[in-house]
Design goal:
Elements: H1 3-7, H2 16-25, H3 32-53, H4 84-89, E1 94-95, E2 98-99
Antiparallel strand pairs: 1-2
């Protein structure tokens, strides 16, 4: 935790039971010293989010992406397609203008 975070009171109170539950959900098995350190660090993280939550953003438009990107669309023009009969001729099995494939569902 930085000096500024300590001075600004960013840390939230997080009890030992909450830390134990988080450790269990994350499948962590910290010893007592690690659990105390996690309690301190998680309290700082939650405190920081509480500070962010307190900021008035009512007049700030949402930013869905950091760059205002627009789709680069091409003109929709009709172009000739591949001849269907030529494609069907490449297959070993066809019937009534369709490809015949092995059955996958019984």
């Amino acid at each position: 935790m930085s000096q500024n975070q300590q001075e600004s009171g960013v840390k939230a109170v997080l009890d030992q039971a909450a830390v134990s539950r988080i450790c269990r959900l994350a499948r962590l098995a910290p010893d007592a010293a690690e659990q105390a350190r996690l309690q301190d660090e998680l309290g700082s993280i939650i405190g920081y989010f509480q500070r962010l939550e307190a900021i008035d953003t009512a007049d700030v438009p949402p930013a869905y992406h950091p760059h205002q990107a627009e789709n680069q669309l091409r003109e929709d023009t009709v172009r000739p397609s591949t001849n269907r009969d030529e494609l069907l001729a490449l297959s070993s099995r066809t019937k009534d203008g369709c490809l015949m494939v092995p059955r996958t569902v019984e």
